[in-house]
Amino acid sequence: MTKPLYSLRLATIMPRSSISLGKISGIDIRLDYSWFIIFLLVTWSLTVGYFPLVYPNWSVGQSIAVGLITSLLFFASILAHELMHSIIAQRSGIPVGTITLFIFGGISQISKEPESPNAEFRIAIAGPATSIILGGIFEAIMLLAPDNLEALVAVSFWLGLINLSLGLFNLLPAFPMDGGRVLRSIIWRRSHNLRHATKVASVGGQVISSLFILGGIWLLFSGLILNGVWLILIGWFIFDAASSSYRQFNIQRILQGHRVKEIMIPDCATISPTLTVEELANDYILPSGKRCFVVGDKDKPLGLVTLTDVSSVSKENRLTKSVTEIMTPFEKLKRVSPDDDLHNAMKIITEEGLNQLPVIEDGKVIGMLTRENLLSFISVQQSLGA
Ligand SMILES: [Zn+2]
What we know:
Elements: E1 2-4, H1 10-13, E2 18-24, E3 27-32, H2 35-54, H3 60-91, E4 96-102, E5 105-110, H4 117-144, H5 150-170, H6 178-191, H7 194-221, H8 225-255, H9 260-263, E6 270-271, H10 277-288, E7 292-296, E8 301-306, H11 307-311, H12 315-318, H13 323-326, E9 328-329, H14 342-352, E10 356-361, E11 364-370, H15 371-383
Helix pairs in contact: 2-3, 3-4, 3-5, 4-5, 4-6, 6-7, 7-8
This protein binds zinc ion.
């Protein structure tokens, strides 16, 4: 699956706590903590379910060891699938920041949408094609392996089957899954209308994911509880992604080409660094209703303190703590410049979970871009049919 960086709701589903495994081709490979759940689940189902059923003569230790190796190779296969998406994206001139393995598989964080239907087609098809080719290779190994090498036969058979299923499953035309992107690229090429293609593909995603959810409910009633829950969760995940994709696409279209300076709030409240948090709350925040203050001078800002910083300080500590102790220092601030694209600013705000971004020019704070500004700009543009 590929995920555009600007996605608003996926960003909330995609957990942030992940560990870096290193870089491949400049791409940061990350393991989300939710991955460990699926890793244990796959290893457990192989060790307790599949291997004892097919090879009852295996010892428990053998089943566990082979289960762990198979599971690791399975996730290496998912990584190969994502890497191929990312490498083809890079070749089409689209930078890729990270690949994250998480509970539902893998996601490549591709920094922008492809510029042509052909590029989109190539990027989308690369993943499933990799899985299907890997599936074929593993099945060939299974066929060529001598029968007495039971572990090799078992591992390659299962990995072959799972990679083939993975490739075919991802080809379902459920946007934003790979097959949905393939579908969008085909409609886009024919109609020359990306907006129309995105709409059709995301409706496809909603329909198919609803079928997953119904199928999952059916499995639940058939007694296959775990499989049922799994299918419902995947269905829900894709439904959410599909329904927000079209909305996000429109938001991106609205924001592109507009500059931060068009909607930033030019005046920006400043406070003295000697204030206590209590004074800031009582004398500045309560009377003005403002959420964000520059500490020091606008021309020589020391940092930024927000309502969130204040509310994280306990009532007793507010009397003694100074605002400089809780502010984000100027050097560490996420910032934009007045000529930055609004779409990029939106990315920073949603990804960092911020309510505002200081607008900085020549080391001076010249204004503030808030989440509220952005949302009202989007809703006005939408009402005017932009
Ligand atoms: Zn994929």
